[in-house]
TrEMBL record, chain A:
Residues where 4-aspartylphosphate is found: D52
Organism encoding this protein: Allochromatium humboldtianum
Keywords: Phosphoprotein
Protein name: Response regulator
Entry keyword annotation includes Oxidoreductase: no
Automatic annotation (TrEMBL), chain B:
Boundaries of every HPt domain copy: 1-103
Function of the molecule: Involved in the transmission of sensory signals from the chemoreceptors to the flagellar motors. CheA is autophosphorylated; it can transfer its phosphate group to either CheB or CheY.
GO CC term, one of those recorded: cytoplasm
Protein name, UniProt field: Chemotaxis protein CheA
SMART domains (alphabetical): CheW, H-kinase_dim, HATPase_c, HPT
Assigned keywords, A-Z: Kinase, Phosphoprotein, Transferase, Two-component regulatory system
Assigned EC number: 2.7.13.3
Entry GO MF terms: phosphorelay sensor kinase activity
Organism: Allochromatium humboldtianum
A single BP term in Gene Ontology: chemotaxis
Database matches in Gene3D superfamilies: Histidine kinase CheA-like, homodimeric domain, Histidine kinase-like ATPase, C-terminal domain, HPT domain, SH3 Domains
Amino acid sequence: MKRILVIDDAATVRLYHRGILESAGFEVSEAVNGLEALERLAEGPFDLYLVDINMPKLDGYGFLRELRAKDIPQAPAIMVSTEAEDNDQRLAYACGANLYLIKPAKPAQLLAHVQTLLGERHPS
Amino acid sequence: MSALLNQFLTEGRDFLEAIGAKLLELERASEPEQGPLMVELFRLVHTLKGNSGLFDIPEMTRVLHAAEDLMDAVRDGRVEFSRDLADHLLEAMDFVSLLIDEIAEASGDGQPPSTSGHAREAVRLGEALRGLMAESIQTPDAGDQPDAASASNGADSGSASETGGWLDDLPESVRDDLQNLLASGESLCRLLYRPEEECFFKGEDPFFQLTQLPEPIWRRVGAREDWPRLAELDAYRCVLEFELILSTDVETLIEHFRYVPDQVEIQPLSASMLDTSVSTATEPDSDESEPPPPWAGLSPEALESIRLALEAQREILTLGDSPAWLGGRLRAVGSTLAAILTSLGRDPATSGLGTALEAALATDSGTYLVRWLDHQTWPEAKPAAPEPVRAAIVTPAPSHPTTTASAPTAASTPDEAVNEPVKFGRRAEDQLANLRTLKVDQAKIDRLMNLIGEMVVAKNALPYLAARAEDLYGVRELSREIKTQYGVINRIAEEMQDAIMQVRMLPVSFVFQRFPRLVRDIAHKLGKEVRLIMEGESTEADKNIIESLADPLIHIVRNSLDHGLESPAERRAAGKPPEGRLTISARQESDRVLIEISDDGRGIDPDVIRRKAYEKGIIDEAALERLNDQEAVNLVFAAGFSTAEQISDLSGRGVGMDVVRNAIARVHGSIDLRSRVGEGTRLRLSLPLSMAVTNVMIIESAGQRFGVPMDAVAETVRVARRDIRVIKKRLTTVLRGRLVPLVALNDLLALDAPQLANDDDELAVLVVRIEKEYLGIIVDDCRETIDIILKPLAGFLGDLTGYSGSALLGDGSVLLILNPRELL
């Protein structure tokens, strides 16, 4: 089963994402900030990261930079933001995100993106 | 490109140019002069044909061979030189020129690229040239016979073929097989090959040709005519025809038979040709000529997400930074791309992605992965609906029994010949002396131009920044440093702009070179004798200016030939030499390019113009009296004016001189017309060297800012309100003894506000010059002048009149640029 790490300081958002992803049959882990997410990596690498930007202690950019500097299998990461700012998107890409989405993403859309980045054959 | 091929192309262009010049010369040469010219012409064509034989360009050799034979006959007096013959030869040379251009453009590896796409055209031209010989003489010499025979064969076989007939002759089982193959997506072709009778003597082996093709599905070898009795049968003549049905595509066959394109018929097969009752609905997969992509079953949402993800990876790869975590970032992109491939139903292991990723990691750069991205086939942004695709493929093509890549050209009527004198695009003359030059894609230069435009705008932000540093934050020192730095950047930007502008410069010969042919063709059509003199062809101006010149100049030249120059008889009666003179010259004067078109024709009669203008309601009775001769002549520029007694098909098709003037005005040029009755007419166009940067004055009105191009501004003055009078219901004032009508800008723009005066109750007036009239525009205030990059208004704003465009200012705001000519 593919494992996804959802990193967000807002419990509601974590729940929202968990619901969508679990219903599609993915295993979901959670972290409340970048620092905790880095600790979670010890559980073994994940297949996809869903990363919020603004978080206490270590924000999404910082987490991605740390993640990409590690010598582990590098899975795709989706940065989820409330801002549709070109600069934020560039920064997210520069830090190591592979996709930049505006939240709240619609369940169907989010799933389509997750499936693409996980290499799942989309249900037609 | 090999040195040999390069040499051939360069020399070939020289030859073509010489041939073109000699042909024109031959037309005007006297009888005794013609002999040596013809010998020279034959030599040129002969050498060029010989050269082309060194390379694998059968299409070119074919046409040149026909031209050579024709010139040989002309030289020997067997065929008479005529205008028609010259036309055909010129057309043939245009074709050869086109081939040379194509070969030069395709960056080959020493061998010229295939020009088989023009095979059909080559056959047509060759036949046309040989046809000219056949008309004059019926005794072709021995060398001509094979080709002449093949030409007629080709024509015969073309007319004899019936699309439907041969299908019925196929055995039922073969037809079933074909249908099944088509249903499984095979692409099938029918080939009819009729080797020319003398082929054995030319080293050709038709049977070998056929064995080199893939194994046919069905074949037939037959007699192409009833054979005579054995005793009379000539065993050395090939009288067979071969008919095959193969599983291959049309292009392959065209390429295979490119040396004998007139001896083959190639026809792609479709399901509907075999059985019209087969509907597309019952055979869903029957008509895909290519296997469907692996992602065919994906939903539009899935494809959209894949497209988005691909776009994102490309953006990540081209970021251009190199942070410490670059390696991890590249690997993440790698795994993302692998996932995308899997989503698309492709195997990442066989895609070469791994190699590209390794190369990217080794070089610490995304370049290799970008390259890999570029070489893959990805779904289109909007997946095409499958239904229309099927329909397009099933459509039978009975109207085109033989298919080649080149579009067949209908024989052009004389009228078309005049309107489109250059049938094969750019001719050899375009390639004049391009030694030691670098060919650069025009789009790249345009991009540079846009970038420098943005640079100029961006640097203009620095003075604003300096002002803010001082006024807002009170750091005068920093402000001064910014200003100093601005000076440096400004200088570099200006130099860059200048350098890029130099790159964009084109000689006017780019436009002029088409005139010898154009003038010749039009003059012939009108039965006039014209000598064309061109001067200053190397004068340069910006590409946009040069390009905008083309149409107006052609129109002017047509006008001159049609209305200006008289027929030889009229000229003789007027005591002039029968041959008219048309001079086109160009020269640079400070920062303008001047182009003069003058003729020694009948000139423009101001009285005729006055009368016409009055009849057409362009001027009233008062004007009829008031206008002096020069002003009257200038009336030809008025909209809807045409003096032609009857509308000819050359000029006077409702496209008048006003269109010419507007076209010139669009590139900020002006036009000046002088004419003397009986002596001739001279038109002078004055154009800027470049229009990349526009100097505008910023004005204020009703709290808004606008720009006015400085070349329209004559002066700015303050006029006391009491000095403004109303004369004939118009606001007017007197400036230095001259009466200047005034209009308020707010009225022109329908802004609901009065114009503001300063403390002394004086109004700011911008005096603009339109043609030779001065007009004052009342504004609230006049500000500084700046250089801007003028962008035309796009979208639904594009229809707005009164504005020439918009520009971005250094502080990020948009400035609308007024067009006084349209406003007033």
